[in-house]
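hey so u asked for the seq, here:
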Amino acid sequence: MSIEVRPVRDGDFFAWLDVYAKYAEFYDTQLTDQKALLLWSWLTDADHEENGYVAVDGERVLGLAHVREFARPLEGDRGLFLDDLFVLDSERGRGVGAALIQKARSLAEERGLGVVQWITAQDNTTAQKLYDDVATRTSWVTYEIDLTKSRTSGQGGEPAESAGASGGPSETGDAEAAHTTAGRG
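ran it, structure tokens below
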């Protein structure tokens, strides 16, 4: 097997969608056509902050990674956030996930960024075995305010009053970063 990691191309849509749908299913998340098409439009728009990569063997898509840059105010630099990472079940343990993470690292190095970060589900121990080999586990705890639920229930949305409450696992100051599913698969 020869693994190549490259940017998504227009012709990748259906193969990418198949992998992304499995990713959504893995996390019991409903992937609507509207959401899939919106993300695809971002990934194929050179001016959008979200970039998509696929790991391929020939023309077969084995896995995907979606990344974006973010500011790190305390460090005075920028980093690369790995929003989504997923490898097909049949391809796990063959270096596909490591190749996708290496691509993120290479992109960050080429751009002169200070860090690559991602979050994962606490119970995703299989993926964490790989992550522990290629990165450093941090002590940050992730919080989020789900505004879609607060609109219907009237709860949430009140900021914490303690010092440091605006910090977070990625130091992005970006509520979207805490809501991502990066590295979960």
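Helices lie at 13-26, 33-43, 96-110, 125-134, 147-153, 175-179. The longest strand covers residues 60-72.
lmk if thats what u needed
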